[in-house]
Amino acid sequence: MVVPKLAIRAVLLLAITATISCDRITKHVAVSTLAGNAGRSFLADTLRLQYAENAGAFLSLGAEWPAGTRIAVFGVGNGLLLCALVTIALRRQWPWPALLGVALFAAGGASNLVDRILYGSVIDFMNVGIGPLRTGIFNVADMAVMLGALIVLWAGYRFDHHTT
């Protein structure tokens, strides 16, 4: 199925705008309502909302590194990798589902990068699980990054296997 370029661009712009907007708004609400307060539990403790600031990466990896190293790796390095990913996806004219995945991934990464620039850490506030089996604390941008990565992998697999 051939999708017009204008439609693809509109969907990508909508995905980027919605992702960044949702992430910024939910982080603002988390700061306003959760910071300094006890966490909240919903759905028989399946969902927990609790404020956290993550100076590191996934699951706080690197949070104890010196500030200069964190800025270089999680700030500058993250920004360069996001730019490289978007450039590669556009120059190689990836199929539209992969571009959607890149848009979600880049929007989530960019929104977390804004946190790092403004606050020196990323604002996280959600935790999901059952009993002792729980995720780390995350945010909307993290969900977009994970969903975007999954879509890129799925699109790569799908289009590689359908073209051979």
Topology:
Blueprint: H1 5-33, E1 40-42, E2 47-54, H2 67-91, H3 96-119, E3 122-130, E4 133-134, H4 140-163
Question: How would you characterize this protein structure?
Answer:
Helix content is 62%, strand content 13%. With 164 residues, the chain is an alpha+beta fold. It has one domain (5-38, 66-124, 138-163). It has a 4-stranded antiparallel β-sheet with strand order 1-2-3-4. The model has no long low-confidence stretch (mean pLDDT 92).
| Tally of DSSP helical segments | 4
Q: Kindly report how far apart the N and C termini lie.
A: 17 Å
Uncertain stretches: none
Q: What is the number of domains? A: 1
Q: Give, in order, the helices and strands.
A: HEEHHEEH
Q: Order of strands across the biggest sheet?
A: 1-2-3-4
What is the arithmetic mean of pLDDT?
A: 92
Count of beta strands: 4
Our Rg estimate from Cα atoms comes to: 17 Å
Name the structural class. Answer: alpha+beta
Main sheet characteristics: 4 strands, antiparallel
Q: Approximately what portion of the residues adopt beta-strand conformation?
A: 5-15%
Helix content: 55-70%
Gross geometry: globular
